[in-house]
Each structure stands twice: as structure tokens, then as C-alpha cells.
Amino acid sequence: RSKVTLNTIRTLHKKNIPITSLTAHDFPSGIVADRAGIDLVLVGDSLAMVALGYDNTNELTMEEMLFHCRAVARGCKTPFLAADLPFGTYEISPEQALENSIRLVREGNVEGVKLEGGIEMADTIKKITTAGIPVVGHIGLTPQRSASLGGFKVQGRTITGAQKLLHSAQALQDAGCFAIVLEAMPAAVAKVVTQALKIPTIGIGAGNQCSGQVLVQLDMLGSFDKFTPKFVKKYTNAFETNTAAVAEYVREVRQGLFPAEEHTYSMRNEDDVKKLE
Ligand code: KIV
Ligand code: NA
Known about the structure:
Blueprint: H1 6-14, E1 19-23, H2 27-35, E2 40-43, H3 47-50, H4 62-75, E3 80-84, H5 94-106, E4 112-114, H6 122-130, E5 135-140, H7 159-175, E6 179-183, H8 187-196, E7 201-204, E8 212-215, H9 217-220, H10 238-254, H11 271-276
Parallel strand pairs: 1-2, 1-8, 2-3, 3-4, 4-5, 5-6, 6-7, 7-8
Helix pairs in contact: 2-4, 5-6, 6-7, 7-8
The structure holds 3-methyl-2-oxobutanoic acid and sodium ion (NA).
């Protein structure tokens, strides 16, 4: 498989081939996404909640994001790799956003950045893309703004809400985004937005008419026994599988069954064992 570039993503979109996207947050999850054939890997700030145990994404610092980006980048070589700008690292000014985008590229070893927001982020996106850093937009349910959205709520369910999403998407395209994540909105709205744009949309809880799909890797692997949103499909149940495996290990150690012969080293010369004893 050859390296996925912006051209690859544009070609997939032009040919109507769905773009596959997934998050990764460390070295092994980066390798899994790469080996499984994902096109676009995102080091999403969801890592704050799913991998670091924070209550929300807004506690995540730039340093933490950089640390995780570097780990993902070491394992994830083929997909196009982009990272979220953490909350507080891009809202103050386009200059601040560019400075931190440069850090994600130089220190985090990612190729592009993603940021949340609509039409109000247009100047910021223009600033970053003009410097040669590819940007993914993100509209609909934007978790960093969940407080002002009144919680983790589906967006664009009214005609005014839907039209606002459409206008935002068009503004993000004009500002230079190469793709836009559409999160938690009616499938019908995502379809209209997708058809109105020249750039691909990547849906999460936005129906199957988007140009591609994204999920949080730990969610879709079923790594949690706690609540997951309606739009998450668990393709396996890692929580049950892993917990059962660790419980088996605990049982075998307690019963003296592990390690067995095949996990054990012997002396080069078995006669030496007697001398030793
Ligand atoms: O943080 C994240 O994981 C994301 C993706 C779900 C798009 O923003
Ligand atoms: Na995110």
C-alpha cells in the first residue's frame, strides 16, 4: 500500500470511493489503523476521555497532544495523519492557531490539523492553510463546545440549524479545508451538505451519505463497558475479551499453571542443575 496523500484522498472522493477514517492515540493503535487499511488517521482529542480518563476533552494540553501524536506517528506510516488542535490552542487568534499547528507538524510529526467550529473559524483556517498545513474542519456536535451547545446533543435538527450547518460547511471549504468532519446530525442534513461541497465530508453519527466515515478506535473496539453514543458500532468487545484474558492470567498464576514449559528457559547443560542445587 502506498502512502496516502491529499491527492489520494481527493482521488477517492472524485471516484466516489468512501474514505475510511479512524482515531489513534498511541503506537499500537496507530499500527492497527495502518495495517487495517485506514486512509485518514486522526489523533483526536477524544484521547483525553477514552485513553486518559478525563471527564471532557477540554482538559487536554498541547504537551499531552504532542506526546501522543509522536507515539501514533511512530506506528502509523501509510495513512494521512492529522491531529486535533486542543481546546484553547487556536481560538485566541489566527496567529495562535498557526503557531500551534506548526508545533503539531514539527513536534508531533503529523501532516495536518483539525479544528472545531463554523464560519467564525474561516480566517483562522485560511491562516493555517496559507502556511501550507492541511486543515480538516469539524462541525455539528463539536465536543469542545458542548457546554455552549447544552451538552452532547444532535445538531441541525431544525431548518435553521440545518441551514447554519450548510453555510458553515461552505465557509470552511472556501477557507481551504481539504475535508470536513460532520458529527451527530440527521443523515438528510449531512447528505445535503455533502452534495453541496467539492471537498469530502467525513461523517460520525451523520448517516451513510457522507464521503467517508470516522469512529473513535477505542469506542468501535468496544473497549468500555460504560455508555457509548448511538452512532458507535462495536465491531468487537475488547473490554470483555481483555478482562476475561487478564482474569485467566490471574487464575493461572494463582494455581501455578503459568508459566508453562514453553515459556520457560533451561540451562545449556542440564547436568549443571545438580551442581547448582
Ligand atoms: O476527537 C476525536 O476523536 C474526533 C473524531 C471523532 C472526529 O474529533
Ligand atoms: Na475531537
